[in-house]
Predict the structure of Phosphohexomutase.
Amino acid sequence: MSKKIYPLQFNPILKERIWGGEKLKTVLNKSITSNITGESWELSTVEGDVSVIANGDLKGKLLTDVIDEAPNEMLGTAVHERFGRQFPLLFKYLDAREDLSIQVHPNDALAKKRHNSFGKTEMWYIMQADEGSEIIVGFKEDSNAQEFLEKVESKTLVSILDSVEVKEGDVFFLETGTVHAIGAGLVVAEIQQTSDITYRIYDFDRVDAQGNTRELHLDLAVEAINYHKLDTRREYLEEENQSNTIVNCPYFTTNFIPLTDAINISKTGNSFTVYMCIDGAFEIEYNKDIYQYKKGDTVLIPAAMDYYAISGKASILEIYIS
């Protein structure tokens, strides 16, 4: 296995969504075949949606199988000790041609009890924003379950939720329990715990091609919601050729790297690293081999890759577990 350690890319898992569009192709060069493609799952071990390696000696293998063969080399010693052989994060790009449903995700304890799953803490990096695009993140003021249910019943829930206009480069960190929705006109890079548990609260009374509405999960959502006003926006530095911290939480650390030159990277072997190319292009040099990446690419650096160099002109998100 050690001879096969190298930067790994994966076949995107493309998801049609009622709110999806075509920007994953026009903005991120994904090979979509539908005009309602809403998500590209870049790196996943969610059951039924496990990523397949797209490059090198391990091409065609499932990420889960490779982790099973060499958990310390792939995940890192600290990550393996904490999570076992389970890859703990999920990486996506999303294209919202229309508003997503208003939803909430449960915390670890609730998700474990109800679904035997992780909770879903996540962050959004806004890659592209049409003028006037907005997101919903939490409540305008502290609320409670009674007010929430009354507003849902009267179809005025949006009136008590916090809508924020966004632009390219904005970042939002959503702890579990945060009521949220990505608005129309946005392309988003999403980093989250490995979980596909979502409680849909309101879907703007939409129907699909067959005239059906999508299922809501109000009973489950009420207990999961954090009713306090929350500060979800994250400010960060943009020092060139440096790892500028955006989010540092128990589940993941995300840094922003404005790359204009070459950087030598040295790792301890405690955690894997993932790079999401947000703009531009860059390359990785490892063991005298060169690996090239462009906007919209996602690459997994196994924990055993303890020394390598990155170079180019790019904006990169760097993610690992501290």
